[in-house]
Write a structure and sequence with these properties.
This protein has 7 helices and 10 strands. It is α+β, with helices and mostly antiparallel strands. It has 2 domains: 58 residues, no CATH class; 109 residues, Metalloproteases ("zincins"), catalytic domain (Zincin-like, 2-Layer Sandwich), CATH 3.30.2010. The strands form 3 sheets. The protein has a 4-stranded antiparallel β-sheet. Strands 1-3-2 form a 3-stranded mixed β-sheet. Strands 8-10-9 form a 3-stranded mixed β-sheet, covered by helices on one side. It starts with a strand and ends in an 8-residue tail after the last helix. The structure holds zinc ion (ZN).
């Protein structure tokens, strides 16, 4: 893993260190923060950086078959991908034809299934929560699982289809709760916990799937 350091100066007041899934280190700091100070900071935080980089490496190793599209996750279960004679086989579960790029074909197939399942799930929770939304759409966002705007339009990331059903439920309840509260206040989480009492646990497992956001 090649670790690059990126320095992002802006009008912010505080300093933050972040490490992405490629092992790149980002230093966010105020405009006048000197390079010497940054070097000192990196020295001070050496232990933290090393621990984090190791974690990224372990995660990438664990997920390497998904990252290289040898395997695919569907509703939290993993399946082998086999391609031959312009046919894709996903475990013993699904099989369909493709012409050019198998990854592209897989993406389209996932998007179609995501459309069906995610919309049904959202509808289900909207009924239970008695919280009607305006419209729902699928996104391919790289950072967010879902969103809800002030016009009550909900967007769900098609990659959610790769996560276990309980994670999909959580994201649906989360976005629907934004119809009542557009923030992440105490009241908001109280509403989420009414329907998903163990939401904290599920929220953590959703974050473990963040590598999925980079796929396709
Ligand atoms: Zn939110």
């Amino acid at each position: 893993m090649q670790n690059k350091i990126y320095i992002k100066r802006s009008s912010r007041k505080s300093i933050a260190l972040k490490i992405d899934s490629n092992g790149n280190i980002f230093v966010y700091c105020p405009l006048r923060y000197s390079t010497d100070k940054i070097i000192n900071l990196l020295q001070e935080k050496k232990q933290w950086i090393q621990t984090h980089l190791q974690r990224v490496q372990v995660q990438n190793e664990t997920n390497k078959d998904f990252i290289s599209y040898k395997k695919i996750l569907i509703l939290g279960k993993d399946y082998d991908i086999k391609c031959s004679n312009n046919k894709i086989n996903i475990g013993n579960l699904y099989s369909f034809d493709y012409s050019k790029d198998y990854i592209d074909a897989l993406k389209k197939w996932l998007q179609k299934r995501a459309g069906e399942i995610l919309k049904t799930k959202l509808e289900y929770w909207a009924n239970i929560m008695k919280t009607p939304y305006n419209r729902v759409g699928l996104t391919s966002a790289r950072k967010k699982w879902g969103s809800c705007d002030n016009k009550h339009m909900i967007r769900l990331n098609f990659r959610l289809i790769m996560l276990p059903m309980e994670c999909i439920d959580y994201v649906c309840v989360h976005e629907l709760s934004h119809i009542l509260q557009l923030n992440h206040s105490k009241k908001f989480w109280q509403n989420v916990s009414k329907y998903i009492p163990n939401y904290k646990e599920i929220k953590k497992s959703v974050s473990q799937y963040s590598f999925v956001l980079k796929l396709f």
